[in-house]
Amino acid sequence: MEHLTFDYPARRVVAARSHVGVVGSGDLEVLLAPNDAMQARVVVNTSVDGYGHIWKSVLDRFFTRYDGAASIEINDFGATPGVVALRLAEAAEEAEGMQGARA
Amino acid sequence: MNLASTMAAPHFAATDSFIELAARERARRLLDADTFRELLGPFDRITSPWLPLQGIVCQADDGAIVARGTIDGMPAVVAAIESAFQGGSIGEVSGSKIAAALELALRDCERGKIVRPVIVFETGGVRLQEANLGLAVIAEIQAAIVALRRYVPVVGVIAGMVGCFGGMSLAAALCTRLIMTRQGRLGMNGPEVIEQEAGIEELDASDRRRIWQLIGGEQRVATGLADTLVDDDAQVIGAAVRAAFAAGVPDVHRSEAVERYLSLLSGVTPETVTPEAMRALFGGASSNRDERRLDR
Q1: What CA–CA distances, in Å, run from B50 to B88, B127, B204, B213, B246?
Q2: In CA terms, which of A11, A77, B82, B265 is 20 to 30 Å from B11?
Q3: A33 lies within 8 A of chain B by CB
Q4: What is the pLDDT of residues B84-96, one digit of tens each?
Q5: CB of B89 within 8 A of CB of B164?
């Protein structure tokens, strides 16, 4: 098991929290909550060691579009980068209350 | 859903699958609309202290969802087990959440405020990484079910696809009424365990047809060891849960009918027994029982 932490700049406050996914085979759980500081912090707990660079790539890409000051916890059970990206988008969308999500 | 879409879609596409729902959504669907209120949810982060010591990632709710709400307007509590996390296994925390939910309902019932308890079983039984702590809390769940069912029916749902095994199969057997789908399975030891311990001559764990003939929902209802066979449909299962509460507390719970089951078992020849023979011998046990129900 590996624990990774990533910080990203943020430009707006996050109002609501959201929870998506399960810690099941090939899946992950995302807990997204407002962060006290005006920055985003992601903590990854993963069952698969040695993929820190892949996590950084997936999160770098997510944060090119996401600018909320969120505290994000990820509990991962071997999800592929595609599944991680989808779950992150789902968590962000749920926290935004689906506004404009399907536009 | 309008009539046109029902007619156009094949049956399997028109149903509203319960099996495909995660545990939290299952609990939400069993409660009256918009009454779901989760207790000790994922943001409370009450996780297993034992899994990280063994290099296993925790889930923030430890795989047990406890929710209060109403069922047919009556206060209710649903405990739903998430099968995708560690096979729905019962650890110290997930099991304690379920036991505490039932014990709180019991305290309310003792004060004259009836709370309707539902358990959505989807579990391989005890979480082996937590060993005796899991077993101990399964005993607490069982004790709570027995205490609670004097006041209000305790309703169990086994939808699948994991099924219900191990110590939790005993907890299920203590419920007032059990609702199962054809996909659901109920047994003490799972097929893989039986094959491993007794040999492939005893049971071939890859023989799915055989396994469902022995422990599948259809067989369990036909032999009276479960009560209601339902299609995998959230609305149908919700209606079955409501009907199970409406039927009230029976005079005699299945697990109290010791003489009846000892006498039935004495008619079983283990060497030659078949699923059909079990139906002929055990069938109707459940319907007899329901005629003696009490309406409260």
Answers
A1: 16, 11, 34, 37, 41
A2: B82
A3: yes
A4: 999 999 999 999 9
A5: no
Q: Quick check: A23 and B42 CB within 8 A?
A: no
Looking at the complex, report in whole angstroms how far the Cα of residue A86 sits from the nearest Cα belonging to chain B: 17
Q: Which residue has the tokens 């099991």?
A: B95
Is the CB of residue B95 less than 8 Å from the CB of residue B64? yes
Of the candidates B22, B52, B59, which has its C-beta nearest A1's C-beta? B52
Q: Return the SS3 of B233.
A: coil
In this complex, the residue of A24, A31, A76 whose CB is nearest that of residue B84 is A24
Q: Is residue B174 part of a domain?
A: yes
- What pLDDT is recorded for position B8? 62
Let me know if residue B1 belongs to a domain: no
Tell me how many domains chain B contains.
1
Q: Which residues of A touch B86 (CB under 8 A)?
A: 23
Distances (CA, A) of B169 to B74, B81, B125, B210, B284: 27, 13, 7, 19, 21
Tens-digit pLDDT profile for residues A53-84: 999 999 999 999 999 999 999 999 999 999 99
- CATH number for the domain spanning B135: value is 3.90.226.10
Query: Above pLDDT 70, what percent of chain A?
Result: 94
Q: Which domain holds residue B44?
A: 15-291
Task: Determine, for residues B84 and A31 on separate chains, whether the beta-carbon distance falls below 8 Å.
Answer: no
User: Is B276 contained in some domain?
Assistant: yes
pTM: 0.91
Q: Does B268 touch chain A (CB under 8 A)?
A: no
Per-residue pLDDT tens over the stretch B99-121: 999 999 999 999 999 999 999 99
User: Residue B241: its pLDDT value, please?
Assistant: 98
B interface test, pick of A4, A22, A90 with most B CB neighbours within 10 Å: A22
The residues of chain B scoring below 70 in pLDDT are: 1-12, 284-296
Chain A residues in contact with B52 (beta carbon < 8 A): 1
The terminus-to-terminus CA distance of chain B in angstroms comes to 36
Per-residue pLDDT of A9-37, as tens digits, reads 999 999 999 999 999 999 999 999 999 99
Separation in Å, CA of A22 to nearest CA in chain B: 7
